Amino acid sequence: RAGSASTAGPYDPETVVSIELGMRSDWFNNRLRLNPTLFWTKYDDKQEAVSQCVADTNCASFETLVENAAGADINGFELEFQALLSDQLTLRTNIGYIDGDFTSYEVPDLQNPGTTIDVKNQKNLIRTPTWTVATGLDYTLLIDGNSDLVFSGSYYSISDDRLQVNRDYYGRDQVDGYHSVDLSMSYNYEGSSLPGKFTRLSVGLWGKDILAKDDGRIANTLDAGLFYLNVTAPRKTFGIDLIVEF
Asked: Do 36 and 57 form a contact (C-beta atoms < 8 A)?
């Protein structure tokens, strides 16, 4: 944190140039949807935290400021794919790829006051997993004109991700990627025969990450200086949903 009002700011705006090239298309009488997208993003004067000596302390104490210290490039593509394999069966897929990194990260050179050094090789551009894949099937079984059963199965995968800007020698700045298989079944009814003023009823059973062998996974990591703190998330979970509309 800033040690005085004079060092607390202000700082200049960061500049982002983003270019997207994509297509939105439906084929075969709207039975196939294909939406590819390429993107290029360039940051200049990116606002990042920078540590520096507190004035008049001979580096006996430090302060952390927000400065326009960095530049970064983020490039990649996204692909959305959806196919109606039959009147009841739908395949859906989303694939994302990201290549992102700092192009510069200037911090004060403590050995040479008044100058800066580039430490981009010691920094992570956070929350930029290389690959994200989600795919699944939905099967709808019509019971009558007012109700149906929907069965869904999904697979999700995400690459390792860096969640702390400062790189850690022991890899504690990283959260491992994971895979998840999810299943669900729901009964849906919509009509005027429900009691009272209810117009829609949905009851669902679901299971998330059903093939997981571990009880939990590390979802976030926090740099506390001398040590790291991990935030966990449950893996294999099951539940019931009840939705009513009126």
From this structure: no
Give the pLDDT confidence of 145-172 residue by residue, as tens digits.
889 999 999 999 999 999 989 899 888 9
DSSP classification of residue 129: -
Q: What count of residues does the chain have? A: 246
Q: Give the residue from 46, 21, 48 showing the smallest Cα distance to 35.
A: 21
Instruction: For residue 235, give both structure tokens.
Output: 């893996």
Rg (the chain; Cα; Å): 25
Nearest to 12 by CA among 70, 54, 51: 70
Say if strands 237-245 and 228-234 run parallel, antiparallel, or are unpaired.
unpaired
Q: Which of 110, 102, 99 is nearest to 132 (CA)?
A: 99
Tokens 């439906």 sit on residue? 26
| CB proximity list for 108: less than 8 A, separation 6 or greater | 50, 52, 53, 115, 116
CA 43 – CA 47 distance, rounded (Å): 10
> In this structure, what token pair is assigned to residue 190?
């919509």
What's at 212, amino acid-wise? A
Statement: the pTM of the whole predicted model exceeds 0.85: no
Burial 223-235, CB ≥16 within 10 A → b, else e: eeeeeeeeeeeeb
Kindly report the backbone phi and psi dihedral angles of residue 126, in degrees, each rounded to the nearest multiple of 5, phi listed first: -75, 160
Pairing, β 237-245 against β 216-223:
unpaired
- Residue keyed to tokens 């008044």: 114
Give 120-139 pLDDT, tens digit per residue: 999 999 999 999 999 999 99
